Amino acid sequence: MKLIFQVNDYLLAWNLLYGASISQRVHTFKQKLWTTYKKKYSLSSKDKDEMLCDIKNYLPNDDTLYNLVFETELFEIIKRDAEKHRLLLMKIWDKYKKEVVKNIDDILRFPLLKEYHVIVFHPKMDSYLTTNQCKTNFGWGFKKDLDDKIMTITNLMYTIVKMDMVEFERENKEYKEIIQAILELAIHNELYTRLSNQSNYLDGDPALTFLKRQIYPYWLMYLGCDREDMTHYMMRDKVVFDIDDYIIEKGLKKVNLYDFIKFCIKNQKYIIRIHNLEII
User: Is-contact 188 218, C-beta < 8 A?
Assistant: First the structure.
């Protein structure tokens, strides 16, 4: 798997126009454009999906607003800082990519695409952009990207896996909480734990905590844990359950993440009825 980090003028300008303002200067500039070009401003808001789907060749039908952005000193500053952020993200990826690819393959057990394009924003934009129409390109830039480099890699991989699974999530939208809980277990918890050598199983969306705790014993079975291994993992992750309450589903260690999700959906009444898990 290859991540290509690049800066694209049009997507950067689009995010400046339609994302959250990163400064009062940006806000004032946007307000001025909105007041002068209301119709064009509304029409150009729809450009994002087409832009992401053909990031290399995209040209807008009406480039009035984009050209006005490109002509400003403000855009030059934002682009320069986005380029700096791109280089920093590249260094982070280069450092961890071999370990990420090895572990993500082991956790997912289904192939991701060979190449993804990460369109880098100014970090103060604090945003990512995706489209359901394209699985290979997404916009990215956050202030916290350099605070925890492993978490940054983890978040990038979470975005990639979410894009890959978009049709599956759409087809199973009534089970979105189960899917979200398992994706969090897989990427934000297990992948981060492997990369950092420090358990991250207590972190994540608080709304998913209960569901994740219920799925956790089966998640260990998916990872290939035998009964004698489970105590080690419980202590590692600070999640406790009574092993004797569970039948070891040996077949789970042979399936991929899609099939594990289907297993949890099919057996959700049995899985979620157990209430003796606790955090220590």
Answer: no
First to last CA, the chain: 37
Bridge partners, 128 (sequence order): 140
**Kind and range of the H or E run holding 249:** none
CB 239 within 8 A of CB 218: no
Q: How far is CA 132 from CA 102, 162, 168, in A?
A: 27, 10, 12
Amino acid at position 32, single letter = K
> What are 59-104's pLDDT values in tens digits?
999 999 999 999 999 999 999 999 999 999 999 999 999 999 999 9
Answer whether 256's CB lies under 8 Å from 108's CB. yes
Residues 6+ apart with CB under 8 A from 253: 221, 222, 223, 224
pLDDT bucket at 273, cuts 50 / 70 / 90: low
Cα–Cα distance measured from residue 231 to residue 243, given in angstroms and rounded to the nearest whole number:
8
CA distance 137 to 101: 18
Q: DSSP assignment, residue 190?
A: I
* DSSP element (H, E) containing 75: helix 73-108
CA distance 15 to 229: 48
